[in-house]
Design a protein that fits this description.
- The protein is mainly α.
- It has helices at residues 19-52, 55-71, 77-84, 90-123, 128-135, 138-154, 158-181, 187-208, 218-252, 255-268, 270-289, 294-321, 323-330, 338-352, 355-364, 368-392, 394-403, 413-438, 445-476, 479-503, 507-526.
- α12 packs antiparallel against α14 (338-352) and α12 packs parallel to α19 (445-476).
- It is globular, with a radius of gyration of 23 Å.
Length: 527
């Protein structure tokens, strides 16, 4: 922990010095700043990986990770959610929690590793067994990470987290590139993300390990087992949702087609990871500290999601609008089948951005049963829709993409149909998530919908203008330069206009945006 970061508990029952809003803003700046830098490095790395690896490598790596996530019924990650929901009891429960997650990690690793050969034989996908064994290390890495990470988050020590994560994640990006260049294929995509978790955990233990009691109490084990079963099942269903597209494609598609989907998905979700996922990580412990005041808690959630929507929706819409110039400049012909998939997934991101803050709110409210039911409904709906789309709608999806001017290769139909179905699922599910989180304060469903609809109304005319300007440029200057101008000039201007236009809809959102920009400017000046 850095010198100017004090544990939240030390500040008294009213919250940390400066208030929770200030700590949330500061935390968002620090976590977002390190993620922005690393995501920029990740995008560059992906461009290189797309040249050094084949779509089949991407497909095999994604499938191995998805098989692992599907197998891990109760993961150590959920223990962090249980402890964050009860911040005052962390010291009493920490030792019991560590013993429990260690046991879970060992069981999951041994079980999946032992099954790897059988999975390769049944699936007839050569080389997937060793990737599954590496993927089976994920719960072990999570078990190392979860306790010290939870301690730092309860202390609201976001600056420390950001510094450690920034260095470790950048190192893992370099490791993946080196492995790919040396010919390790799909392994260069599978190993680095797991190494990140383990190394972060080791460093966190070095920083705060002395402040984590390791005494194991039988009563704590019983208490945690009951709560972890509900929280863990909810987290499992969330994990299944996140990899369900790849799991379904594993039944219908080749590694090549899964790879087309995998690259499109990684590109489409980069901005969301920078903005929404980091904000969710920051807000969950803060919401937990505000559990005794649900009106204040949910008012803060709505205000935060409106601000988030004013940024995430314009970025995601413009991702879809700029798909053609992006792929024309950055990727070769092998990846043409990813373009329409990327467009569909980017549209889905205009709804999906709110899932992480909504999940953080439900967990902080200790409403793991509500979280579990929401996730179960989404899993069932997604399973039916994805299987139906992959089995029946591939040709229709290709025809629809070509009809609106998007290239769609003959080998991308299953993936494109599933991508369209995925966007549909998130468009239905995410407003429900916001409404569920706001129910303790009586948040109307129409208010949940407005969080998504209002920025879309701003972005539709802006997107049309950008498409028209691109068409005009293609008529008067060489195609490559037209795509560069569209991507590097028109795109950023459109995003900025969309953010400003969306933020001006609500006075408090406009105030929050100016406040965040001011904080960021001051941080840069201080640095």
């Amino acid at each position: 922990m850095t010198a100017n970061e004090q544990p939240a508990a030390a500040a008294g029952p009213s919250g940390p010095r400066g208030g929770f809003a200030n700590r949330a803003a500061s935390g968002s700046i620090w976590t977002t700043a390190q993620v922005v830098v690393n995501k920029a490095a990740t995008v560059v790395a992906m461009l290189l990986l797309a040249r050094w690896l084949s779509p089949a490598d991407f497909g095999l790596a994604n499938l191995a990770a998805s098989i692992g996530a599907f197998t891990f019924l109760i993961t150590p990650v959920a223990m962090g959610d249980v402890l964050l929901a009860r911040p005052r009891e962390f010291d009493r429960l920490a030792g019991s929690a560590l013993a429990m997650v260690a046991a879970i990690a060992i069981v999951l690793f041994v079980g999946l590793s032992a099954s790897s050969g059988t999975i390769e034989h049944i699936s007839q996908r050569e080389g997937i067994a060793i990737l599954i064994i590496v993927a089976a290390l994920r719960p072990v890495a999570d078990a190392i990470l979860v306790l010290p990470n939870t301690r730092l988050r309860l202390d609201l020590s976001y600056r420390t987290i950001a510094k450690v994560d920034g260095v470790v994640i950048f190192g893992a990006t370099l490791l993946g590139l080196a492995m790919a260049r040396l010919g390790y294929g799909a392994m260069s995509l599978t190993l680095p993300p797991i190494a990140v978790l383990a190394v972060r955990g080791v460093v966190y233990w070095f920083i705060v390990g002395s402040r984590i009691p390791l005494r194991v109490e039988r009563s704590g084990l019983r208490e945690l087992a009951s709560r972890l079963s509900v929280a863990g099942l909810g987290q499992y269903l969330n994990n299944v949702i996140m990899i369900s597209e790849v799991l379904v494609l594993g039944l219908f598609a080749s590694e090549q087609e899964i790879g087309l989907f995998g690259l499109a998905f990684q590109l489409a979700t980069q901005a969301n990871a920078v903005i929404a996922l980091q904000l969710g990580a920051v807000l969950q412990p803060i919401f937990g500290h505000m559990a005794d005041d649900p009106q204040r808690q949910i008012a803060g959630f709505v205000r935060a999601t409106r601000l988030l929507s004013s940024v995430a929706v314009p970025i995601s819409v413009m991702q879809a609008v700029l798909a053609l110039p992006l792929f024309a400049i950055c990727f070769d012909e092998r990846w043409q089948g990813s373009i329409a998939i990327f467009v569909a997934l980017s549209i889905g991101q205009t709804f999906m951005f709110v899932s992480a803050p909504s999940i953080a709110l439900l967990k902080a409210q200790d409403r793991f049963g509500t979280y579990l039911r929401w996730q179960l409904g989404q899993v069932i709906g997604a399973a039916v829709l994805f299987v139906g789309a992959a089995a029946l709608a591939g040709d229709t999806a290709i025809s629809a993409a070509r009809a609106i001017g998007l290239p769609a290769t003959d080998d991308s139909g299953h993936a494109l149909a599933v991508a369209i179905a995925s966007a549909t699922v998130w468009a239905v599910s995410c407003p429900i998530a916001v409404w569920l989180g706001g129910r303790p304060a009586g948040l109307p469903y129409r208010s949940s919908l407005r969080i998504f609809v209002e920025p879309w109304m701003v972005m539709i005319p802006i997107g049309i203008v950008v498409l028209g300007a691109r068409y005009g440029l293609l008529q008067v200057i060489p195609a490559w330069w037209a795509e560069v101008v569209t991507l590097c000039v028109l795109g950023p201007v459109a995003v900025l206009a969309g953010i400003l236009g969306s933020a001006r809809i609500h006075a408090d959102t406009w105030t929050d945006l100016k406040s965040q920009l001011g904080r960021f400017a001051r941080r840069r000046a201080e640095a």
